[in-house]
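Data's thin. Show one?
=====
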Amino acid sequence: MDKELFTWQYILFNAFFFALFFTFVFPTIMIKMGKGWNKKSQPTLEHEEEIIAQGPANFKKKYEMVGGKLLITNLGLIFKSHKVNFQAGQHNIRFSDIRNLEPTHKFRWIKNQFIVHT
């Protein structure tokens, strides 16, 4: 081969292109896609139940980690899964049914999950 496969111009162009793409374009696309997805996966609330806080979470069902949203309401915990999971659905746990919350960690030093004992 007489020519270099990767020239400095090629490497700089790729670095500049991917830096711009993953800094501005990709996050914008993901935000626009996420807004429509969240509207479709709204949980069903009981009468006089109000959402206090919510955030992304995983729910372990047998061997599958189901992705979705965890909502804390004035009556208990609600996990609403995304539509793309095999085991989709909603799980309600009332505060009166919870015996113990056990914080655990998936990584060594960071406690980033908890087990709900009912």
